[in-house]
Design goal:
Structural class: mainly beta
Largest sheet: 4 strands, antiparallel
Radius of gyration: 27 Å
Shape: elongated
Number of strands: 4
C-alpha cells in the first residue's frame, strides 16, 4: 500500500502567477514611499499659526491663498486634520 501523501507535489515549484506574494512575504520588503493623490499638492503652502510650549501646534495649509486644511499636532504625536470646504452657493439665512 502506498503512502497517502505520495505524489502530492511537496517539492514541485508552484504553478501559476509568479508575481503572487504571500502576506508575510510582503512584510519583509521595504515599503515604497506613498505618493500624494493630488499632483498639485506640492503647491500647497504651510503656515504655523499657533505654537506654544505645552500646547498643540496649529498649521494652516493653503492653496492659491485659500486655506484648504487645518492641521493640529496633538501632544501624543497624532494629527487632527480638518478640511476646509467652501460652498459657492452658500446664502446666509434671512437674505434673499
Amino acid at each position: 500500500m502506498e503512502s497517502y501523501l505520495k505524489g502530492r507535489g511537496f517539492k514541485e515549484e508552484p504553478k501559476g502567477d509568479s508575481s503572487f506574494k504571500g502576506l508575510l512575504d510582503a512584510q519583509n520588503t521595504p515599503a515604497e514611499p506613498m505618493q500624494p493623490d493630488n499632483p498639485d499638492a506640492n503647491l500647497a503652502q504651510k503656515e504655523v499659526i499657533y505654537e506654544e510650549e505645552g500646547c498643540p501646534k496649529v498649521e494652516v495649509v493653503s492653496e492659491e491663498g485659500k486655506p484648504t486644511t487645518i492641521v493640529i499636532h496633538l501632544e501624543d504625536g497624532r494629527l487632527l486634520e480638518i478640511d476646509c470646504v467652501y460652498l459657492s452657493s452658500f446664502k446666509p439665512i434671512g437674505l434673499n
